[in-house]
What we know:
By secondary structure, the chain is mainly β. Helices cover 13% and strands 38% of the residues. It has one domain (4-180).
Amino acid sequence: MSDMDQATVMPEEGAVSSGDAATSSGSRVRIVRLPTQVANLEVIVPYALIAEINEVMLPEGETHLSRLDAAMVDWRAQRIPLVSLEAMLNEPLPTIGQRVRCAVIYGTNPDIALPYYAILLSGVPRSEEVTADSFEEEVQVDGEIWGITALLGGRRIAIPDVRTLELRIDEMRLRFEQESMAPAQ
């Protein structure tokens, strides 16, 4: 099994790891840099979490995302929640149109009905291989959705706490479903 196939989420800590790749300094793991406009950070995730990079159409009239709401978009004949990390962190939301680029992520929590979700991107993602030795030091960053923050090649990076992120997105999805089922007043 390759390092890419070993990427998992550690439920006890919620931190993303790559099996032995996170502890064995010589092992390599493939990551994807997700281009967002989160201030002073580059967001990375294990390659194995990415289902697809795609463009989706926002529902008519929904050209904004908020901290507490997800837009439900169509992807491969399914409705999945699309979120903005910037909005979730109370940062300014990038200007978006009806068609947006996103990273569709595999859901990892079997306890919630969230097989996929999408994260708004502001550019084209890149994948690369890194080793545990590539991370220079852990740094402190505000934001409850980060599992790990560190320096990688002199740049500040953040790896989302996938379980926390999924729980927040699932709450948004459930709120959306309840609001759409509520009778109009």
